[in-house]
Design brief:
By secondary structure, the chain is an alpha/beta fold. It contains 18 helices and 5 strands. It has a 5-stranded parallel sheet, with helices on both faces.
């Protein structure tokens, strides 16, 4: 059990013990920093709860085979997560590695996005899904063609297929709601209470901080009375942001950040990556083509030139989630520039990262207007 969750021994030991004792709570909170394996743990727990033969990752029961491909109909994925860097990295790996392991890695990364568009979650919003029908069909066809055991097309055709798959995923990612809609909470509650079958059902809600207040209230009712044979797993970066009324209904599992050496080992084992030693650094490198990275680069360049006018794209940021994405891209851009500088100023680098964290705190916790927060950050960055 949990063979694919690396360097989180305390968490895996606790979960294994509760599974053996039959004391696992119906509503769980997996909290902790990004890249600590929370979604991996949630998906693996969903598989184990359905397994009928031994619980090991290599189990060949029908349930485990479906779970490894993230195709099991009684596991639901919801919530915002930017999966494009992971999908892009897995697609690149497959260009040089056609093993079943590399194929499964890519398939799972794509399915982490695709499963968030299960039709029942979007009931009542048929028009939005209709726009994606052709994209979804093409993605499913692409995934089927690279299933373990299938013969892959030639090198040129494979590269073309992988490029199309990544582009289709980018289109899907754009349609993923920034904040989890209340309608999806209602839909998953109805599904959990009324779906047929005796299989164990698992609902995984990613980035649970990113919800409207109305959605949180609807979720509270779901947590108070979860249906029998159902597990609800919430994933959060920061437990302290969640309302106490929600946290009190959950059993918390605090994931710790892995060490640099542990992250380097994961990158070597999973992606055959030798140059980078950090997961964030690695995945940020696959985000370079995004609009946020371009805006962050423009932001830093205009600050450096002494231009008092912020980039127009920054002035248009009004949504809290958009601001979070921009600040993450800005942090990555500053780290890159610091590493490449011939004589990097460590103190200045640390100050800039602190200012970015402070800006997020002012917007998220103090609820200050986002344009005001970003203007203050721009001015700070420009001070000599």
């Amino acid at each position: 059990m949990f063979e694919n969750l690396l360097y989180q021994k305390r968490i895996t030991t606790q979960l294994k013990q509760e599974l053996i004792e039959g004391s696992l709570a119906p509503a769980l909170l997996f909290s902790g920093p990004m890249f600590s394996g929370r979604l991996t743990a949630a998906l693996e727990l969903a598989r184990i709860l359905c397994c009928e033969d031994g619980k090991q990752w290599v189990c060949q029961c029908n349930y485990c085979c479906a779970h490894r491909l993230l195709s099991h109909p009684y596991t639901v994925l919801m919530g915002q997560r930017n999966l494009i860097p992971e999908i892009s990295a897995c697609a690149e790996l497959m260009k040089s590695d056609s093993s079943d392991k590399a194929r499964l890695l890519l398939i799972r990364s794509v399915k982490k996005l695709l499963r968030r568009f299960d039709p029942f979650l979007w009931e009542g919003e048929g028009r939005k899904l209709a726009k994606l029908n052709s994209v979804v069909e093409r993605m499913v066809e692409s995934v089927d063609s690279i299933l373990p055991g299938n013969q892959l097309p030639g090198r040129g055709k494979l590269r073309e297929l992988l490029g199309t798959l990544v582009n289709d995923c980018i289109e899907m990612q754009k349609m993923l709601p920034k904040l989890l809609p209340i309608a999806q909470i209602y839909n998953v509650r109805h599904w959990a209470h009324h779906s047929a079958g005796k299989n164990h059902k698992t609902v995984i809600i990613d980035n649970v901080e990113k919800m409207l207040d109305a959605s949180r209230n609807a979720l509270l009712k779901f947590l108070e009375e979860p249906p029998a044979n159902t597990s609800i797993i919430l994933i959060a970066n920061n437990k302290s942001i969640l309302p106490p009324t929600m946290v009190s209904r959950l059993r918390n599992y605090s994931f710790k950040a892995r060490s640099r050496s542990q992250e380097a080992e994961i990158l070597r084992r999973v992606f055959k990556e030798e140059e980078r030693s950090g997961l964030k650094e690695f995945f940020d490198s696959w985000q370079r083509g995004s609009s946020n990275m371009n805006i962050a680069k423009q932001f830093v360049e205009q600050v450096g030139s002494g231009n008092l006018m912020m980039p127009r794209e920054i002035l248009e940021i009004r949504d809290l989630e958009l601001m979070r994405d921009f600040l993450e891209a800005l942090s990555a851009e500053i780290r890159d520039r610091w590493k490449k500088a011939p004589s990097p100023e460590h103190r200045r680098f640390i100050s800039k990262l602190k200012w970015i964290r402070d800006a997020r705190f002012r917007a998220e916790i103090l609820r200050l207007p986002i344009p005001l927060v970003l203007r203050a950050l721009y001015n700070l960055m420009g001070d000599p």
